[in-house]
Amino acid sequence: MRVGLLGLGRIGAFHAETLAAHPLVDELIVSDPVRSSPHGRPGDPFEADALVIATPTDTHAELLTRAIERGLKVFCEKPVAGSVEETIEVLKAARGAFVQIGFQRRFDPGYVAAATACRAGELGALHRIHMITADPKPPPAEYIPKSGGIYRDCHIHDFDILRWVTGHEVDTVYATGANRGEAFFAEAGDVDTSVALLTLDDGTLVTVQGSRYNGGGYDVRMELAGTKRTQAVGLSPWSPLTSTEGFQPPGDPWPDFVARFRVAYEAEIDGFLRADSTLCSVDDALEALYIAEAAELSRAEGRPVRVAEVRR
Q: Helix, strand, coil proportions of the chain in percent (round to 5)?
């Protein structure tokens, strides 16, 4: 199989390494306006049989549409587009096409185990879920104005995996945020610290917490509390946590998202190459985006927002 790769930034470079080593990939064609890769030859990625898009967000919709029109099997990092309207247009174009969106947590062994346990009723009836996504340091200042805000850029992963693990939809969102660090977050209308309360369609309560300044390290966890037991995802020797009772993780904390989700990213690409049908669709991405839109509206207006309010 010939595979094209657009974008050789941090995640694109990792995808290039993964694709070049994959047994189904006979040739890797890479393209980036400023970077090169030792793992593929320069050229036009649209000449391949399958395409991986790892370019900036504002290019996704156009590149996805071009790939769909050429009949390519296509994988695109989240998000599909910068707005709900653009996402819906891509969704229309993607009907009948193979388009997989990059929500890698679906391929992480911990989240897979949690989904299996949850769906099998091993936790009992779910009552509470807590989720956290916290970066050890903020992204570059120039990234924030085009990121879409912390709920669209960062917590959209939480929203997607919440739907996937539980099999339930989010009904209501009540979100807020604060700025405790650099001024460029507030200047862009964004926040660097976030908290949200979500209510699922079955009444389960979900708390979501985030930070761009988690000095201990990269922290992504999910805790599911049911009537039979509580299960945690992401609690490991590399979690950036200590305890006043003396618990000290034996390993260094996760430094970043690539280190934490390396196995998931590799499994995600493997699934894309081998699958006959998409493993995470544009429809899934749109549903997660709707939740993020509701969160941003809630933060702006200081009130609970039903996801139905932002649907198009």
A: 40, 25, 40
In a domain? residue 269: no
235 shares a domain with 139 = yes
CATH code of the domain in which 63 resides: 3.40.50.720
Number of folded domains that form the chain? 2
- Beta-sheet strand order (sheet of 205-211): 230-233, 219-226, 126-134, 205-211, 193-200, 170-178, 305-306
Query: Is 223 a member of any domain?
Result: yes
Quote the pTM value.
0.96
Query: What range does the domain containing 197 cover?
Result: 106-256+281-310
Q: pLDDT 10s per residue in the chain (312 long)?
A: 999 999 999 999 999 999 999 999 999 999 999 999 999 999 999 999 999 999 999 999 999 999 999 999 999 999 999 899 999 999 999 999 999 999 999 999 999 999 999 999 999 999 999 999 999 999 999 999 989 999 999 999 999 999 999 999 999 999 999 999 999 999 999 999 999 999 999 999 999 999 999 999 999 999 999 999 999 999 999 999 888 998 888 888 999 999 999 999 999 999 999 999 899 999 999 999 999 999 999 999 999 999 999 999
